[in-house]
């Protein structure tokens, strides 16, 4: 009988605990972002007077924070429009360049037999074991020496190298699932290898390429350390991440205005995430269930 | 043909990742400062001075201990919460997909935005956490979560962990548990239901089913996650730099390297410290893999 009692107690206990834990986790995950949006609409003096407010009071919603954070420095704002442009240039540049480089690479690792094919993925992954700060030192020195530190293009090249391994890994997994017999059939019909790749495998891999592009975009948009090292000296080159982190140290800019900047930094990522969530989760954990 | 297709990737990885690593090794043995940078060649006078300077400098051992505590507790926290979340969301219910997606937000959100909102929420003057801590939970004073070097004491014993270090560890758990959650959920879905059904018929309680059926199946995944999370937490720079700037007992080695590189302009010493960091990480990970057998690779 005692086993049955224990079973009953446990079932009841977990029956109660489960919803409690789910709600708790949801609050922990979502509240900071709700609060971010909420603060970005509040005037600063209202925050200082009533720091405990959790939802907007009547007539308190204030859009001027967004105006101030976006406006250029000449017109008294914080110049986030320029930061957004910089972040977009860097992120899109990284996506385009890394796909151009990684699609042929992933295809080769998946399909073609050449000496060192197995080792090459191991080398690519092993290299990323090193801390980013270790890579940052020589890259900082190198780009300073060739006078390219402070350029957005220099940053793009560094980012492409940073995401190359994970891009190849994700795309290779996908190429592996496309049966080679499709290309063989095309070869019999007189296609060359390159034609078969372009006309058969690439279109089939489009979903993987799209989700990979979004993934790389998110990494490049969120990146902080290299942006800090490379671009910090010139305000007109700052990315949104860098701008927010730099300005949050100064007392002159009100927290609520910067909160509007944080919303601007976060919203594109959250939108992209919900658009691509299904593919991304699948792509990242592909192979994990083999374990 | 294979070489031709792989060569662009190989080239960019070689120039932007492999060469820099080798160059760091070279820099670590030279006397290079930001000021004399333009006159230093790739090959210069090599000596062990940087290593002796770095290893014997006050605060290095301290930073190393802090790094270890941060990565061990941060990893444990992330994986622990990840397991709990995966278990809680295991049985299907309406809207589970959406809830799962929400769980991933802390991980995908930009680190600068996440640290900024937490810094604001934990602010001692107008932070919402301290407001409710003092009014509802009866705290005597607001807690300076991110600038208090006061050691945390457990059962009256003072530990190496300061209030700020505990805060950044919990932040690491908050930010990284989604990663663990994602992988554990994927693995759980692959566990055949019949196993647990059979155990239920045999009278196993929910906790026994977890202990004897689910957990053994998860172990390989947990082992891989531990290694990955440990490496990333050990190397982490962004979170601590943005939350505390490395102050009040939170200076990990990565932040210290940055300090040497930018604030002191001592490139040689920065490189030497980064190498020591990588070497220690390599030793720890190798030891772990030796101890727990060859875990399967991620790829």
How would you describe this protein?
The complex is a heterodimer of chains A (291) and B (299). Chain A is an all-alpha fold and 291 residues long. Chain A has 2 domains: 2-69, no CATH class; 77-290, MetI-like (MetI-like fold), CATH 1.10.3720. Chain A has helices spanning 2-40, 44-49, 64-70, 80-111, 117-127, 132-145, 152-177, 180-188, 193-204, 206-222, 225-231, 240-247, 255-285. In chain A, α3 (64-70) crosses α13, α4 crosses α12 (240-247) and α8 (180-188) crosses α9 (193-204). The longest helix of chain A is centred in the first third of the chain and has 39 residues, at 2-40. Chain B has a two-stranded antiparallel sheet. Residues 295-299 of chain B have low confidence and may be disordered. Chain B has helices at 2-28, 49-56, 60-88, 96-103, 105-108, 111-121, 128-135, 163-189, 193-201, 206-234, 238-243, 253-263, 267-291; strands at 151-154, 157-162. Chain B is 68% helix and 3% strand.
């Amino acid at each position: 009988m005692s086993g049955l009692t224990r079973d009953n107690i446990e079932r009841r206990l977990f029956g109660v605990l489960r919803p409690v834990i789910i709600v708790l986790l949801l609050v922990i995950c979502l509240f900071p972002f709700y609060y971010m949006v909420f603060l970005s609409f509040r005037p600063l003096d209202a925050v200082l007077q009533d720091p405990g407010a959790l939802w907007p009071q009547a007539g308190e919603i204030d859009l001027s924070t967004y105006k101030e954070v976006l406006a250029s420095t000449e017109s008294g704002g914080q110049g986030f429009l320029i930061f957004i442009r910089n972040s977009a240039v860097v992120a899109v540049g990284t996506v385009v360049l890394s796909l151009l480089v990684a699609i042929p690479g992933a295809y080769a690792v998946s399909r073609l037999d050449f000496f060192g094919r197995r080792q090459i993925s191991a080398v690519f992954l092993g290299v990323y074991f090193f801390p980013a700060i270790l890579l940052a030192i020589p890259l900082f020195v190198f780009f300073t020496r060739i006078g390219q530190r402070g350029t957005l293009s220099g940053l793009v090249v560094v980012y492409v190298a940073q995401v190359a391994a994970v891009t190849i890994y994700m795309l290779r997994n996908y190429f592996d699932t496309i049966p080679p017999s499709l290309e063989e059939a095309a070869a019999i019909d007189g296609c060359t290898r390159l034609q078969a790749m372009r006309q058969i495998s690439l279109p089939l891999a489009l979903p993987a390429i799209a989700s990979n592009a979004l993934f790389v975009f998110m990494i490049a948009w969120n990146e902080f350390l290299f942006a800090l090292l490379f671009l910090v000296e010139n305000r007109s080159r700052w990315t949104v991440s860098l701008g927010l982190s730099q300005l949050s140290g100064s007392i002159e800019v009100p927290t609520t205005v910067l909160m509007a900047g944080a919303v601007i930094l976060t919203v594109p990522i959250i939108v992209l995430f919900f658009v691509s969530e299904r593919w991304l989760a699948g792509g990242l954990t592909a192979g994990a269930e083999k374990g | 043909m294979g070489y031709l297709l792989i060569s662009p990737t190989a080239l960019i990885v070689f120039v932007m990742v492999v060469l820099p690593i080798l160059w760091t090794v070279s820099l670590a043995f030279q006397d290079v400062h930001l000021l004399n940078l333009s006159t230093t060649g790739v090959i210069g006078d090599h000596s062990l001075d940087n290593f002796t300077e770095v290893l014997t400098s006050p605060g290095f051992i301290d930073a190393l201990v802090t790094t270890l505590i941060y990565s061990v507790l941060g990893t444990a926290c992330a994986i622990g919460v990840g397991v709990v979340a995966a278990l809680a969301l295991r049985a299907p219910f309406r809207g589970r997909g959406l809830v799962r997606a929400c769980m991933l937000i802390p991980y995908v959100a930009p680190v600068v935005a996440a640290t900024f909102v937490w810094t604001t929420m934990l602010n001692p003057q107008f932070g919402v956490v301290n407001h409710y801590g003092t009014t509802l939970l009866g705290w005597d004073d607001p807690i300076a979560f991110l600038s208090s070097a006061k050691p945390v004491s457990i059962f009256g014993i003072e530990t190496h962990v300061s209030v700020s270090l505990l805060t950044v560890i919990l932040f690491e758990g908050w930010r990284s548990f989604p990663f663990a959650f994602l992988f554990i959920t994927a693995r759980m879905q692959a566990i055949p239901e019949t196993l647990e059904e059979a155990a239920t018929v045999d009278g196993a309680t929910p906790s026994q089913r977890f202990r004897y059926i689910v957990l053994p199946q998860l172990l390989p995944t947990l082992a891989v996650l531990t290694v990955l999370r440990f490496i990333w937490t050990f190397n982490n720079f962004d979170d601590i730099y943005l939350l505390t700037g490395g102050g009040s007992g939170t200076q990990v080695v990565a932040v210290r390297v940055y300090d040497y590189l930018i604030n002191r302009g001592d490139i040689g010493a920065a490189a030497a410290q980064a190498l020591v960091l990588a070497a220690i990480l390599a030793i720890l990970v190798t030891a772990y893999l030796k101890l727990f057998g060859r875990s399967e690779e991620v790829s």
